Request: fold
Amino acid sequence: MKTLTTPWQKMIGLMFTKSKEEAKFVFKSDVQCSIHTYFCRYPLDITFFDKDYKILERVILEPNKFYKPKNKFRYIVEIPC
Reply:
């Protein structure tokens, strides 16, 4: 699993990747930002966690979709479907 911590890594995420790799996004504080699957070639199972790794939301996004989480989160895990 790739761990993405820098702003650049988090901005690119799994876009443009051909291999179905998992990714963990780590934020320094709680955030509430939207995500998308533009330029992603496969659907993603996306889970949002709080600072204690409690699951807040889970969504499956098809390629070229947009999603705005309902809650602030600290971590995101993306797993290709």
Notes: Residues 6 and 56 are 23 Å apart (CA to CA). The radius of gyration is 12 Å. The mean pLDDT is 94. Helices lie at 7-12.
